[in-house]
Amino acid sequence: MTASPAPLRRLWIRDPLAILADGAGGGLVVEGSRIVETVPSGARPVTPLHETFDASRHVVIPGLVNTHHHFFQTLTRAHPVALDKPLFPWLKALSTIWPRLNPEAFRMATRLAYTELLLSGCTTAGDHHYLFPKGLEASVDIQVEEARALGIRAFVTRGSMSLSEKDGGLPPEALVQDDDTILADSERVLGLFHDPAPGAMVQIGLAPCSPFNVTKRLMRESAVLAERHDCRLHTHLGETLDENAYCLDAFGQRPVDYLEEVGWMGPRAWVAHGIHFDDGEVKRLGAAGVGICHCPTSNMVLASGHCRTCELEAAGSPVGLGVDGSASNDNSNLIEGVRHALMLSRLTYGAEAVTHRDALRWATEGSARCLGRSDIGRIEAGREADLALFTLNELRFSGAHDPLAALVLCGAHRADRVMVAGAWRVLDGHPLGIETGRLREEHTRLAHALFGTA
């Protein structure tokens, strides 16, 4: 006779200092990987309990969802060849050294980026990996392995570049692959790793790098492949005025027209940056449901411009947040990105137009919508138990009166506890299973050995 499965244990995260959820002042109950109940202030859970965690020192928010990054760039942070440059010169400078990337270094870069994101309260880590020099063909496999080992939810996009300098693109020949190779590997990793079901721990998207690095054929066939496998599409779009000029010169059209021509104008797609759109393009993107990943820190570092977050959201586009590559942000801290999104948007729209709750919503529910997920991004019954818990016990928070506002305005940068799919992955500010000092030393050694200028 087959034994019955053991009943799932129920944990009450009780009486938080503050919580980003309506009517949940008394906390929430987790059973297995999901939230099964939210508890009003002063009440007790209806469901029977096995464990209780006193959250009276913690501000509880949904786990943050990162929708754009380039993990490999953690190895070239603050690199002398790329300092103080806008996007195109910055890319050209770093593309001279990125061909040195090898599997060992890429694995360490991936591990470090996942760990940094997790420590910042991120529970779903998206990466756009488009760099496949010889020997690094199994990059997606490495990223999936590292995510599973750490226990973080991953959204890995199989990026690509197929136009080198000799074809009119930006990257050197060593960094590109031909369209057929890219499409074959895209199909391979989708078959191996993509899980479209609710609660999935690993999902795959297809992400040709940008209009100036790939062919239109690759864009079109990626869209067909995404439809067949029910996966998302991602690319850079509208990041700089130089990109607009390139598209006009190369294609005789602006980036949004290009996106429409290749069959990407629909809710399956989300784009990174989305800065230089005119009023008509904002309306078209919103009507089509194309998501926008706002990368405020990177946009400021490279002086790319101001994403039109409020207009895009009002038009109907999901708006999420991303840290972007760690060579244009120089860290992988998403809660810091929330603060930057708030400040940059207030500078654009006015102090009363964007609140701390708006910025947190972009990093949680908005980002989840960009990824096509309705099972994460909010604290409510039936959603995945992905949570970030912060304490306000540092000097920067002293004197704060609204705990949720303080999290953003006073500059929180490290979570005390993080839960992914109902399991604690960060305890007392430390990631389980990772010795951060050793990780930093090994990552630094490889970064300097491969990309040092001496």
From TrEMBL:
Q: Which UniProt keywords apply?
A: Hydrolase, Metal-binding, Zinc
| Family under the similarity heading | Belongs to the metallo-dependent hydrolases superfamily. ATZ/TRZ family.
Q: Which organism is it from?
A: Methylobacterium gossipiicola
The Amidohydrolase-related domain extends over: 59-410
What InterPro entries does this protein's entry cite? Amidohydro-rel, Metal-dep_hydrolase_composite, Metal_Hydrolase, MTA/SAH_deaminase
Question: Which Pfam family, any one of them, does this sequence belong to?
Answer: Amidohydro_1
Q: Does the keyword Membrane apply?
A: no
Record-level Gene Ontology MF annotations: deaminase activity; hydrolase activity, acting on carbon-nitrogen (but not peptide) bonds, in cyclic amidines; metal ion binding
Q: Does the keyword Transferase apply?
A: no
> Which PANTHER family does UniProt cross-reference here?
AMIDOHYDROLASE-RELATED DOMAIN-CONTAINING PROTEIN, AMINOHYDROLASE SSNA-RELATED
Annotated protein name in UniProt: 8-oxoguanine deaminase
Q: Which Gene3D superfamilies match?
A: Metal-dependent hydrolases, Urease, subunit C, domain 1
